[in-house]
Amino acid sequence: MSAIDRERVKNLEKMREKLIHDAYYLQAENYHKSGKIVRYKPLVDSFLDHCSHLVEKNFYGSLWNMTPTPLGHAKPYNFKNIEDMTFKFQLCKLINVTKYGRMFSCRTDDAITIKTWDFFWPANNDCFDHPSRFCNELEILTDENPYSCLMKLKWFCFQNILAVVYDETPTQYLLRVISEDENFRWEDRMKVATQLASLFTWLHEKRFAIGRMEPSAIMIDKEFNIKVVDFSSLGRVRDIPHNILPDAPEADNVTETLKEDAYAFSILLLRLITNNKNIEGPYHWWILEELQGGKRSIADKSVLLNYDGVLACGITKLAAECLDEDPNARPDMKNVFDRLTNLVSKAT
């Protein structure tokens, strides 16, 4: 790790200590812009009074006035500029709703995208971990060797809101391409799968777990190169909750494991090779039922075309291993990536 990168990590750790949930949650704007109607007026009044009291006391002034330092290539950005670029977060600038916030398109000299983590009131408990999620994403996006499957980070903001500014704008998402694009051929699907396996592997090397990842959070270009726009459960390994991926059968166990990511990857792989088939019930049960009676491939015939099916059988076997009910029996993501790359190279 270089001296510059050590300084980046040090500054990130300081941010993790300073950014607290209440500073972002206890703001009157979170009620006014939530669009939710709370019928019990005393509850609303209590929240707004509490927010007003904090403003009068300038309770979080030190946080808003904290002088942030650049994180690698990414520079801190002013909240007022974020407001101006989004017309104060007007719907006309909204391009997508993410798992924990919103995305806004801003046309300046270049196409950029602003993503927020929202603290709307009333809210569920998800927003409690927003500061941690924000810092986790900053950590991987400001790495001294940024990964090609991640968005390019330009700026970040923690004054009044938590937001990142990407130096590019999504054009289309994998969710639509999987089932609607007739040009999304088998080799293109394998290209996407290989990129995803590579990203999972890279993040594991950085000691991050991904958990669930949705096709709606993956940007894809005309050459079928992907970039992940949003994470549902990105967490440092030591911070992994036991239910990071509720689909995995070990979700209720007390042992933390990166093998849940192999399960999560296999879910994406199934969606790619089955042409986004609607699968009901636990995935590990579904694939066992599908492969009963000697069946070797679950790939949708409509996406195979001129392929002889040998690759499809190999991919199916790999997917089944990743969905093993016993997490210890699943391959790690480095093994998955190596095997997937080998299978694809033999077929070309």
Automatic annotation (TrEMBL):
Q: Which residues form a coiled coil?
A: none
- Tell me one Pfam family matched here: PK_Tyr_Ser-Thr
The protein's UniProt keywords, in alphabetical order, are:
ATP-binding, Kinase, Nucleotide-binding, Phosphoprotein, Transferase
Q: Does the keyword Phosphoprotein apply?
A: yes
> So which domain of life are we looking at?
Eukaryota
Q: Where does the Protein kinase domain lie?
A: 89-344
Q: Which GO terms describe its molecular function?
A: ATP binding; protein kinase activity
Record-linked InterPro entries: Kinase-like_dom_sf, Plant_StressResp_Kinase, Prot_kinase_dom, Ser-Thr/Tyr_kinase_cat_dom
Under what name is this protein listed? Protein kinase domain-containing protein
Organism of origin is Solanum commersonii (Commerson's wild potato)
